[in-house]
Amino acid sequence: MIRFTLPVVLALTVLATSAGANQSEISTWDTFLKPKYFPDAELIEDGNVIELKTPYRAEDASVTPVSITAAFPQSESRYIEKIYMFVDENPQPLVGLFHLTPEMGRADLAMRVRVDKYTNVRAIAVLNNGEHYMQTNFVKAQGGCSAPLAADFAAAMETLGAMKFRTMGEANDDNTIVGQFMLSHPNVTGMQKDQKTQLIRPAHYVETVKIYYNDKHVMTAETGFSISADPSFRFFFRPEGGGELRAEVSDSKGNAWEQVFTVDT
Question: Is the pLDDT of residue 13 over 70?
Fold first, then answer.
């Protein structure tokens, strides 16, 4: 669950104000985010563990594509246990914390995120042996967290919690296949105007997505409003000739949904 308390928001505000007053750039990552999330960890910047792909300039800041590719397969002896995704200069910098398992086969993820201003985007992979590896890309985009809501917000809310799932392509040599999970949810940031009333809508966003296949845990995403509206996640799993994929979702207003999908491969 990703929530920023008032002291945290004030700290970010102080940093921004101080930067302007001193006419010098203050790193949000170095002064706030790294000490908060990784105070004692060595972050190894090595492209031999994960590769982060982002556009240098996003066409639409509210749906900026991001993908992470792992350099080795998930196995019981060595696997990526967690992936942290950050957009440093967003009002809510931690986009998501993804808990991964060997059941995925490959620790690859793809999603769409909001980018509020020119910023570094980071992925930190935590291995099951405790090692931390970081990749960083700079992205030029603005206004993603305040981009307008759907013109007919009431209609969008009627499908709240609706889910879709599909497999993509053929199974690979390692018996993995790409799955895409899609959820209907506006993921309101609390900074967007309703197009009809011109009032700011209060924040309302997806907090957890849990994926199971044949009752085995595949992955869990703990997310916030830096994930785009109508969240979509692509990931690998092993279909094992067919079975059932179960998705469990909850949001910041206490709503919860569950759906089972039949997988035929």
Answer: no
